Amino acid sequence: MNLRYILNIVSLILKYMAIVMLVPCICAFIIKETNAWQPFAAASIIALVISIIFKSDKEITDEIDNMTRAEALTIVMVTWVIISLLSAATFVYFGLSPIDALFESVSGITTTGATVLSDFSLYPKTMFFWRSFSQWLGGMGILVLFIAILPKFAVAGRQMFLAESPGASSTDSKLTPRIRQTAAALWGIYFALTLIEFIALLYFGMPVFDAVCTSLSTLSGGGLSNLSQGIIVYAQSKCLWVIALFMFLSGTNFALQYKVYVKRNFLALFKDDEFKSYVFIVLAFTIFIAVTLTTHHIYDFAKSLKEAFFQVVSIITTTGFASVDYNQWNLRAKLLLFLLMFTGASIGSAAGGVKLLRLVLIFKYLRRQIAKIHHPNGVYPIKINKVIVSEDVVRQIVSFVIFYYVIFGVSAVLMVYIEQNTIVGTTAAIATLGNVGPGFGVIGPMGNYGSLEFLSKCICIFNMLIGRLELIPFLALFHPDFWYLKRTIKNSKIKKAI
Q1: How far apart are CA 475 and CA 466, in angstroms?
Q2: How far apart are CA 35 and CA 127, in angstroms?
Q3: Structural contact between residues 109 and 465, judged by C-beta atoms closer than 8 angstroms
Q4: What are phi and psi of 387, to 5 degrees?
Q5: CB atoms within 10 A of CB 325
Q6: What pLDDT does 77 receive?
Q7: Phi and psi torsions of 384, nearest 5°
Q8: What phi and psi, each to the nearest 5 degrees, are found at residue 342?
Q9: Is residue 387 within a helix (H) or strand (E), and if so which, with residue range?
């Protein structure tokens, strides 16, 4: 592991982060909150200073192509932590405690959408804009944004892009020859959809500021709202259908959307196994929940369909918006929503969670194992989109899913023990690990995480970070080679490394 590579690239990323942090300053002046720009300007200066400190000699940028995957993963992890801390500093300025500020910051950057805030009137609009904007940046990975504008990342850039968007590793997802162009193409789709949603929300009567924050939070799969009651305020408006549509798109693989919008390959939707599974699950759960709500006389069937569809899309895309307080639903309906928290939408989308493609592969893997009980010598290749998946990839995905649910189990047990509440502890664990946001009980759609114990908030922060980074940098820490490389750096002359 070459420390100078890591420091130099983090320096480049922070330089651009310093520019990004000026955006809420502009927002503060536009909406005439003259006392709200200072923390963001200070964070921008700090990011720039750290960037200058980390900056190494220019020759290093010519050698970035030789960067190892371990170095790339370290950059991903370090950058997300530094950016989370910078963002947290702005929340401290507005009166949040350090742990609450870090919770709110990580929730935004990781597009989790969980909040500790209760009285929104205590804070300026600029702060809520930053929460939404930070979600939008994190929606497809802040690092992907910077890779798109830093052409010298080359191979190393691709490695980091894989850490953020595993779906891009397949041959079918190579939209353009270079990773910089690929990231730019995906961000083009991302930006265009955000703009279209903003215009649609304005058309149907949503105020400008609400439309801006809602659009940023929807396409990112984040769900943090600038309104204390969330988008329930617009529950009777056509804006709700606009939000539902764009939530669904945020959970659809952006590489697949690129093929549809840009390459005009409309049949790609019907050939994609993951998208078909995505549509099937949304429709199936919508019908099941609607029937449950109707038979329990909570709503009539038409309203049940509407509310069920919105909540199913919101949970599976890990956006976390709520059109109603589903805490008031019957146990069967809530159980179905709880199951959706364990899925997530498409790989290569803004959604969090395990992702459907992995679950589809797990299902096919289990089906193969059952077949082998009857025919031990049979050959049963696993195919995704009619392409055989290598056994190495199958093993990696099986391992990932196992690790994912083990981390959920451990964090759930710890939080149930700390909070002395099974529902809160369990749903908080999966809602933060899957970047869903709200859970059930006091952390439901009308509640917040503010009442949780200090240790529970720490676990939630940990879950949000590793969940958004898809466990990869975290799991890398457990391999002996990683620590061997660290000792090699430590025992070498640091000055030479830097």
Answers
A1: 9
A2: 11
A3: no
A4: -110, 130
A5: 14
A6: 79
A7: -125, 125
A8: -95, 5
A9: strand 387-388
Structure tokens at 177: 């020859």
Angle in degrees, 0-180, between the axes of helices 154-164 and 179-203, rounded to the nearest 10: 50
> Which of 2-11, 275-284, 326-335, 426-435 is the least confident region?
2-11
Q: Which amino acid is at 376?
A: P
Judge whether 102 and 85 are in contact, CB under 8 Å.
yes
Estimate to the nearest angstrom the gap between the alpha carbon of 277 and the chain centroid. 20
- pLDDT exceeds cutoff 80 at 421: yes
Q: How confident is the model at residue 288 (pLDDT cuts 50, 70, 90)?
A: very high
The token pair at 221 is 């799969």
pTM of the predicted model, to two decimals? 0.88
Give the C-alpha separation, 277 to 262, whole Å: 23
**Under 8 Å between Cβ of 258 and 185:** yes
Cα separation of 289 and 293, whole Å? 6
Q: How far apart are CA 307 and CA 338, in angstroms?
A: 16
Q: Report residue 23's pLDDT band, with 50, 70 and 90 as the boundaries.
A: very high
Residue 235, pLDDT > 90, answer: no
Q: What is the pLDDT of residue 390?
A: 84
pLDDT surpassing 50 at residue 165: no
Contact 281, 274 (CB under 8 A): no
- State the Cα–Cα distance between residues 425 and 117, nearest whole angstrom: 19
Contact 40, 22 (CB under 8 A): yes
Q: Which residue has the tokens 């400190």?
A: 53
3-state helix/strand/coil string of 83-124:
HHHHHHHHHHHCCCCHHHHHHHHHHHHCCCCCCCCCCHHHCC
Q: Are 91 and 122 in contact (CB under 8 A)?
A: no
Residue 250: pLDDT above 70?
yes
Give, rounded to a whole angstrom, the gap between the first and last alpha carbons of the chain.
12
The token pair that represents 64 in the structure block: 């970035």
Average pLDDT over residues 232-237: 89
- The model's pLDDT over 118-162, given as tens digits with 9 standing for 90+, comes to 989 999 999 999 999 999 998 877 556 545 444 343 333 333 334
Pairing relationship of beta strands 383-384 and 387-388 according to DSSP bridges: antiparallel
